[in-house]
Amino acid sequence: MKRVVVAGLLVMTACGSVSSGDETISTFNPNPDVTVSIPTEEEMQEQLERSEEFAATLIGLAEQ
After folding, report:
1. Are the beta carbons of 12 and 4 closer than 8 angstroms?
2. Alpha-carbon span 64 to 54, nearest angstrom
3. Does the predicted TM-score (pTM) go above 0.70?
């Protein structure tokens, strides 16, 4: 019974929010200089072909 109570207290403590006064602390700081490129259809097709070629080299090999 003690273990259940202790485990419950640990869970409640771990789920508590971190705040100082009315302010909350955020650790998410995105870098505005980073850009994300979306691959074109041709690039996706090339990647698929490379993946299929690599997979074909693995077929029939024994696990080492």
Report:
1. no
2. 17
3. no
- The Cα–Cα gap between 18 and 15 comes to 9
Which residues, other chains included, contact 25 with Cβ-Cβ below 8 Å and sequence gap of 6+? 18, 19
Per-residue pLDDT tens digits for 7-24: 766 666 666 555 555 567
Q: What is the largest CA-CA distance in the chain?
A: 62
Return the closest-CA partner of residue 16 out of 5, 28, 27, 24.
24
Give CA–CA dist 34/12, Å, rounded. 37
Q: Which pLDDT tens digit goes with each residue over 45-59?
A: 999 999 999 999 988
Task: Determine the length of the chain.
Answer: 64
